[in-house]
Write a structure and sequence with these properties.
This protein is α+β, with helices and mostly antiparallel strands and 217 residues long. It has 4 helices and 15 strands. The longest helix is centred in the N-terminal third of the chain and has 11 residues. The chain binds flavin mononucleotide.
């Protein structure tokens, strides 16, 4: 089998972004709510996202630069990054299939003094331990205290430590095989996590298979 063999130096900044965005798929989506110093609420989706550690419970996402100038390299930071650096808190909401349209609408550029919740017609509910509210309808919402912001060029890898979790009772299983607080996000089709592919493509979880491991995991 022949391959196209390339060094990252042979890509422009945008070409590298498209390579990574279109090949590392499917990706989960962190729907991140945050507040600024005045308490104005912000909500935006981030699919460069994953679990960094289960113990301690750390989630991470990459917040890209805003308006980066390929000539001068000048850039500004997105509201989410500005908010988490200022208030040190955020909520990662898991995006259910039934709120896919609303999720995409929350990535529209709107003025920083307006809330994406109102813009997308979404309801919010207060969080337990942090100031940013959660998205009503998210199957799971992780309330996070900022762990660190690691600048990566114009981007930043943002990590937060989970300090509280809100779980929709419809996907809460409870005790199973000796462990408590188990969840099943596949149980209700409309609550299944929505996945990001490349371009304008997304995926809905449908063909689920079982693969057993020797250790039973
Ligand atoms: C499904 C989806 C995934 C996205 N993933 C990212 C991402 O991983 N990193 C990023 O910087 N922007 C991502 N964006 C774009 C941001 O959501 C968008 O720039 C948003 O306006 C940022 O909002 P803010 O300035 O209020 O923080 C994504 C957009 C969509 C629709």
């Amino acid at each position: 089998m022949s391959t196209i063999s390339l060094s990252p130096d042979q890509f422009t900044r945008d070409e590298l972004y498209f390579l990574l965005r279109d090949s590392i798929i499917p990706r989960p989506i962190a729907w991140v709510s945050s507040v600024d110093a005045k308490g104005i609420v912000n909500l935006a989706p981030f699919s460069f996202f994953n679990v960094c550690s289960a113990n301690p419970p750390i989630l991470g996402f990459c917040c890209g630069a805003k308006d980066e100038d390929s000539g001068t390299g000048a850039f500004s930071i997105k509201d989410t990054r500005a908010n988490v650096e200022t208030t040190k808190q955020f909520v990662v909401n898991i995006v259910p299939e039934c709120l896919a349209d609303e999720m995409v609408r929350t990535s529209d550029p709107i003025p920083a003094n307006e809330s994406e919740f109102a813009h997308a017609g979404l309801a919010s509910a207060p969080s337990e331990r942090v100031a940013p509210p959660r998205v009503v309808g998210a199957p799971v919402a992780y309330e996070c205290e900022l762990h660190s912001v690691t600048p990566l060029g114009a981007n930043a890898w943002v990590m937060g430590r989970v300090v509280h979790v809100q779980i929709d009772e419809r996907i809460y299983v409870g005790a199973k095989r000796g462990l408590n607080h188990r969840v099943d996000l596949l149980r209700h089709t409309e609550l299944r996590p929505y996945a990001r592919l490349g371009g304008a493509f997304y995926a809905r979880l449908r063909e689920i298979e079982t693969m057993t491991r020797k250790d039973g995991g």
